[in-house]
């Protein structure tokens, strides 16, 4: 079976492409013309040069494919020019859906995010049906993904067979950029985490997330959303687990919310002048005010998604970062 994967150079996308290739699928990866694609080429993946912001290049890449896995997204907590993020996440998704409908693809797996779901302020886990509005979305990334998800539902109403998956906070190897979560691990390993905020996240092994994508294509119901996650852990507990694995010291100082928020505003003001990424983005601090806890039982029940222990995923990530020069 021939399948198209967008975002295959990204963290989750690479693992999805690898799993598809391992299962004997003929994988086409839509990639932009710059970058190092050696890791994908080593998987036997065929590269199609294009851009999800260009509908014609999407149609060319999807010719002859039966399924499409749309993972490409601009995933940054802070951006100097938000318009480009909306162009990628919203218009790009619209282009993908238009191409899939035009070509009559049999299944589209759209990668949304738990960030497009409503988070709880009291720690109660949300699920796929927890009501959410655009007003609940903190920052341009969450807002753009929320709007993009609405685009996916619009095409479902037109008859396009789309299944939506919402990864939580993936951890594991081959986190090249790294992602914001991967950067937290790298900063911890380099002794750059002196304190923490009182918040919590749902963590999951990236390889389980990749498996969840393929299982969604196999078992997922059209028009349904599935949270691909595993364990709800406080940020303090997360750093404590990293300390247990590495033997390093976990941060003991819990920072109050408001002074950190004020510092973040000052940091971003400087970033607008220097055009450098702020160390403490305002959106990231605002997100931390709510616990990003989720009930992932639907994906386990309907997709039979595996859930390997999160500490094992942490250990794999630590080993990969150390072996690839991220740790001083």
The low-confidence runs, each spanning 5 or more residues with pLDDT under 50, are none
Kindly, what is the distance between the CA atoms of the first and last residues, rounded to a whole number of angstroms? 43 Å
Fourth-level CATH superfamily of the domain at 2-172 and 203-231 and 293-308? NAD(P)-binding Rossmann-like Domain
Could you give the count of β-strands? 12
**What multimeric state do the chains show?**
single chain
Q: What spatial order of strands do you see in the largest sheet? A: 3-2-1-4-5-6-10
Count, helices: 12
Instruction: Give the H and E element order.
Output: EHEHEHEHEHEEHEEHEEHEHHHH
CATH architecture of the domain at 2-172 and 203-231 and 293-308: 3-Layer(aba) Sandwich
Q: What's the rounded overall pLDDT mean?
A: 93
Q: Write the CATH fold name of the domain at 2-172 and 203-231 and 293-308.
A: Rossmann fold
CATH C-level of the domain at 2-172 and 203-231 and 293-308? Alpha Beta
What is the molecular shape?
Answer: globular
Largest sheet: 7 strands, parallel
> Structural class, please?
alpha/beta
